[in-house]
Specification:
The protein has 148 residues and is mostly beta strands. It is built from 2 helices and 9 strands; from the N terminus they run E-H-E-E-E-E-E-E-H-E-E. The strands form 2 sheets. A 5-stranded antiparallel beta sheet has the order 3-7-6-5-4, with no helix packed on it. A 4-stranded mixed beta sheet has the order 2-1-8-9. The protein is globular, with a radius of gyration of 16 Å.
Length: 148
Protein backbone atom coordinates (compact mmCIF):
# COMPACT_ATOMS: atom_id res chain seq x y z
CA UNK A 1 0.00 0.00 0.00
CA UNK A 2 1.30 3.46 -0.85
CA UNK A 3 1.34 5.53 2.33
CA UNK A 4 -1.04 8.47 2.49
CA UNK A 5 -1.32 11.33 4.97
CA UNK A 6 -3.26 10.54 8.11
CA UNK A 7 -2.67 6.80 8.37
CA UNK A 8 0.22 7.24 10.82
CA UNK A 9 0.85 10.24 13.07
CA UNK A 10 3.99 10.17 15.21
CA UNK A 11 4.49 12.82 17.89
CA UNK A 12 8.27 13.30 17.77
CA UNK A 13 10.30 14.49 20.76
CA UNK A 14 13.75 14.39 19.12
CA UNK A 15 15.94 17.40 19.72
CA UNK A 16 15.92 18.45 16.05
CA UNK A 17 12.11 18.40 15.76
CA UNK A 18 11.77 20.31 19.02
CA UNK A 19 14.21 22.99 17.87
CA UNK A 20 12.62 23.38 14.43
CA UNK A 21 9.08 23.52 15.84
CA UNK A 22 9.83 25.61 18.91
CA UNK A 23 7.67 23.23 20.95
CA UNK A 24 7.95 20.09 23.10
CA UNK A 25 7.14 17.93 20.06
CA UNK A 26 6.30 17.94 16.38
CA UNK A 27 3.55 15.79 14.85
CA UNK A 28 4.11 14.33 11.38
CA UNK A 29 2.42 12.18 8.78
CA UNK A 30 3.86 10.81 5.56
CA UNK A 31 3.16 10.07 1.93
CA UNK A 32 5.03 9.09 -1.20
CA UNK A 33 7.09 11.99 -2.45
CA UNK A 34 5.55 11.37 -5.89
CA UNK A 35 2.04 11.91 -4.45
CA UNK A 36 2.92 15.11 -2.59
CA UNK A 37 2.42 18.57 -4.06
CA UNK A 38 2.33 22.13 -2.82
CA UNK A 39 -1.03 23.81 -3.38
CA UNK A 40 -1.86 27.49 -3.04
CA UNK A 41 -5.59 28.04 -3.26
CA UNK A 42 -5.79 31.73 -2.36
CA UNK A 43 -5.18 32.80 -5.97
CA UNK A 44 -1.83 34.43 -5.27
CA UNK A 45 1.45 33.39 -6.87
CA UNK A 46 3.61 31.90 -4.13
CA UNK A 47 7.24 30.93 -4.01
CA UNK A 48 7.92 27.19 -3.59
CA UNK A 49 9.19 26.19 -0.14
CA UNK A 50 12.96 25.87 0.08
CA UNK A 51 14.44 22.38 0.50
CA UNK A 52 17.29 22.81 2.97
CA UNK A 53 19.76 20.16 4.16
CA UNK A 54 19.38 20.18 7.94
CA UNK A 55 21.20 16.98 8.86
CA UNK A 56 23.48 14.31 7.39
CA UNK A 57 20.41 12.10 6.84
CA UNK A 58 17.73 14.48 5.56
CA UNK A 59 16.36 17.79 4.38
CA UNK A 60 13.44 19.99 5.35
CA UNK A 61 11.12 22.18 3.33
CA UNK A 62 11.06 25.68 4.81
CA UNK A 63 8.59 28.46 4.09
CA UNK A 64 10.39 31.13 2.03
CA UNK A 65 8.41 33.87 3.81
CA UNK A 66 8.64 32.93 7.50
CA UNK A 67 11.13 29.99 7.53
CA UNK A 68 8.55 27.72 9.19
CA UNK A 69 9.54 24.04 9.05
CA UNK A 70 7.00 22.34 6.75
CA UNK A 71 8.37 18.85 6.05
CA UNK A 72 11.14 16.35 6.58
CA UNK A 73 12.53 14.41 3.60
CA UNK A 74 14.86 11.62 4.73
CA UNK A 75 17.53 10.59 2.23
CA UNK A 76 16.72 7.50 0.17
CA UNK A 77 13.30 6.92 1.72
CA UNK A 78 11.05 8.12 -1.14
CA UNK A 79 8.68 9.73 1.36
CA UNK A 80 7.91 13.23 2.50
CA UNK A 81 6.88 13.83 6.12
CA UNK A 82 4.73 16.99 6.33
CA UNK A 83 4.17 18.65 9.70
CA UNK A 84 0.50 17.96 10.42
CA UNK A 85 -0.07 21.43 11.87
CA UNK A 86 0.91 22.99 8.52
CA UNK A 87 -1.64 21.01 6.48
CA UNK A 88 -5.12 22.16 5.58
CA UNK A 89 -7.72 19.76 7.01
CA UNK A 90 -9.19 19.35 3.52
CA UNK A 91 -6.00 17.67 2.28
CA UNK A 92 -6.97 14.54 4.20
CA UNK A 93 -10.34 14.13 2.49
CA UNK A 94 -9.04 12.28 -0.57
CA UNK A 95 -6.64 10.20 1.51
CA UNK A 96 -9.30 8.82 3.84
CA UNK A 97 -10.66 6.29 1.37
CA UNK A 98 -7.19 4.84 0.81
CA UNK A 99 -6.56 4.58 4.54
CA UNK A 100 -9.71 2.52 4.97
CA UNK A 101 -8.37 -0.09 2.50
CA UNK A 102 -11.48 0.12 0.35
CA UNK A 103 -14.05 0.55 3.11
CA UNK A 104 -16.94 2.93 2.50
CA UNK A 105 -15.64 6.48 2.90
CA UNK A 106 -19.02 8.19 2.82
CA UNK A 107 -19.34 11.60 4.40
CA UNK A 108 -22.46 10.67 6.37
CA UNK A 109 -21.94 12.38 9.76
CA UNK A 110 -23.69 9.51 11.55
CA UNK A 111 -20.89 7.04 10.78
CA UNK A 112 -18.04 9.59 10.99
CA UNK A 113 -16.25 7.99 8.03
CA UNK A 114 -15.19 11.49 6.98
CA UNK A 115 -13.28 12.07 10.22
CA UNK A 116 -9.53 11.62 10.00
CA UNK A 117 -9.31 10.05 13.45
CA UNK A 118 -11.62 7.25 12.29
CA UNK A 119 -8.94 6.15 9.79
CA UNK A 120 -5.67 6.40 11.66
CA UNK A 121 -3.63 3.22 11.60
CA UNK A 122 -1.37 4.33 14.43
CA UNK A 123 -0.56 7.33 16.57
CA UNK A 124 2.54 7.09 18.73
CA UNK A 125 5.04 9.08 20.77
CA UNK A 126 8.56 8.65 19.33
CA UNK A 127 12.04 9.55 20.58
CA UNK A 128 10.66 9.55 24.12
CA UNK A 129 14.13 9.33 25.62
CA UNK A 130 14.67 12.96 24.59
CA UNK A 131 11.48 14.48 26.03
CA UNK A 132 12.38 17.84 27.60
CA UNK A 133 12.54 17.84 31.39
CA UNK A 134 9.80 20.48 31.57
CA UNK A 135 7.28 18.34 29.64
CA UNK A 136 5.40 15.18 30.62
CA UNK A 137 4.09 12.82 27.91
CA UNK A 138 0.32 12.50 28.40
CA UNK A 139 -1.09 9.23 29.72
CA UNK A 140 -3.12 8.73 26.59
CA UNK A 141 -2.56 5.01 26.01
CA UNK A 142 -0.49 5.59 22.86
CA UNK A 143 2.67 3.62 22.16
CA UNK A 144 5.86 5.25 23.43
CA UNK A 145 9.11 4.47 21.62
CA UNK A 146 12.63 5.51 22.51
CA UNK A 147 13.47 5.80 18.80
CA UNK A 148 11.66 6.09 15.49
Amino acid sequence: MTPFPGCYLPHCYCQMCRRFSGAALATWTYCSIDDFEWICDDGEEKEEPLLVRTSVFGQRHMCPTCACNLTVVYDGEGLVWPAVGCLDDECFTESIQTCTDGADATTNPKNNKNRLDAHLKEVAHIFCRTVPVWYRIPSDGLSQWDAR
